[in-house]
Amino acid sequence: MSIPLHPRAEAHGKVIVLGEHAVVYGYPAVAAGLPQGIVLEASPRPDPRLPITLTIPAWDLDLELHPGSDHPVARACLEVLAHCDGPVTGWAIRGSSALPSRAGLGSSAALTVALARLVYGPGAGVDDVVAASLAGERVFHGEPSGLDSRVAAQGGVLRYVRGEPPRQIRPGAPLPLCIIPSGIPRSTADQVARCRSRLEHLPSVVRPVLIAVGQAVESGIHAIEHGDLDTLGILFDVAHGLLGALDVSSPALDRMAADARAAGARGAKLTGAGCGGCLLALAGDAPDRLTAAFPSLRPLFVEVAAS
Ligand code: PMV
Prior knowledge:
The chain is α+β, with helices and mostly antiparallel strands. It is about 40% helix and about 25% strand. Strands 1, 2, 3, 4, 5, 6 and 7 form a 7-stranded mixed sheet that branches. Strand 9 (about 265-270) and strand 10 (about 280) form a beta hairpin. The chain is globular and about 60 Å long. The termini are far apart. The structure holds (3R)-3-hydroxy-3-methyl-5-(phosphonooxy)pentanoic acid (PMV).
């Protein structure tokens, strides 16, 4: 008999609205949970000594969680299970998700949060779930800010500072977010290293850029709370420029941002680690025109409700 798992668990995806990269250095970020996260279902294998399997067809994942595995997702999942004193054998775990993986929409945090919940059960506290998720997230990059895990576990719109309790943000008007996948995969660890290398090379120039990203977050939160979408759109454009200065944008993302603005977006920026992943645009009065400008990229339109 292996250690039991609960039959079903869920977690949110996430989109970073403002503050990526600077959040690694202790500046604030604001992120929104996406309902299209992940659902995991666990069923016992016929022989409890068989390895745990993880199958997520939407992400082309079909893995056995062997202790010697060098697959990063297997290693991350084993870290989470070890952190939670979960089983090491005997379960088949199947996942379904509407999120693309490796696109900066929090797929790995959603997976590790939901996995921790399979062990801990539906009554688990958010802090415990986040701690377990972070054990897995460290496999993907050594110094995660913790933002992804927090939003995956909690949902909503959150102001997050590393090491502090997050604050729930209440939008004064619905936020019309258009998430446009570039289709270009990227590595969060590489992108965090690019930003760090620029900071170490030119600290007196780059530190103020990080501070400006943090200021854009505080102004953005004020704009979100007051339903001031025009100001928020300008802050998206400013943040995209600052992220370019941190060396984490790319010509493809810069072109997409310009195309989104030309198609009526109030503002557009990269979201997440950058150099691939997704563009985040704040839709204007005609969101259909914006989504129609990227027909082959299958944009995802999410309206975050006012509260
Ligand atoms: O993995 P992504 O694309 O969601 O990016 C993570 C955001 C960073 O700020 C770049 C890193 C972090 O740990 O917060």
